[in-house]
Batch of 2 targets.
Target 1
Amino acid sequence: MKLLVDSSFPKRLHQLPNRHGVDVDRYDGSAPDRDLVRYAAEAGYDALLVLDQELVTRPAIRELAEEVGVTLVCSVTDDPVDAETYLRSSLSTLAERVRRWRGGLLWLRKAGVSP
């Protein structure tokens, strides 16, 4: 599974080893939300992880993600370091859930990943 994280995550995150079949890349640019979702799809990512809860609650963004087949994953914390910790401890669960909820919305929590 390929996971794209937005630029608000620490730069070191792209160095996360490919464990549990999850390849993590960090988006280093800035783009409007719709363009970021489209970029993720066009570049072959299965999921896009963001810290911006407002982004994933917008119907137009969720519809676009479903249309292009990118699962939106949002951290319940807006602290990038905490979100990175949650991600590191939830990689296997995240990969399994993204396969099941392709194009849907998942929440990254301290206790794991949930729809």
Target 2
Amino acid sequence: MKLSLPGQMRGSECRRVMPRATALRRRLEPWVSSVTHPDVDTLSVVMRVGGSLGTFSPPGVTNVTADSRTLACDLVIEDFGWDALSEDRIDSILAAISNGPGRA
């Protein structure tokens, strides 16, 4: 299975999150590639990262759909004041999200 990780951000400071999320995606790719299902070949997780210009909705996984061999969902991440956080803290927030449901 392939993993797609497009993103939408609410504020220029959220740019700091995407390189860290890309690194997380690289760590998840071996696991995702081992998942097989006859009807799905792509997992598409749209990261919606809240920031200084607002948020998208409450944090968590929303809008789960399956269409044309793609399983898709939105992953809403609330505003954490990205400019003020260290790279390690951003990593820990993304890791907490990847470890299971709930808030980071």
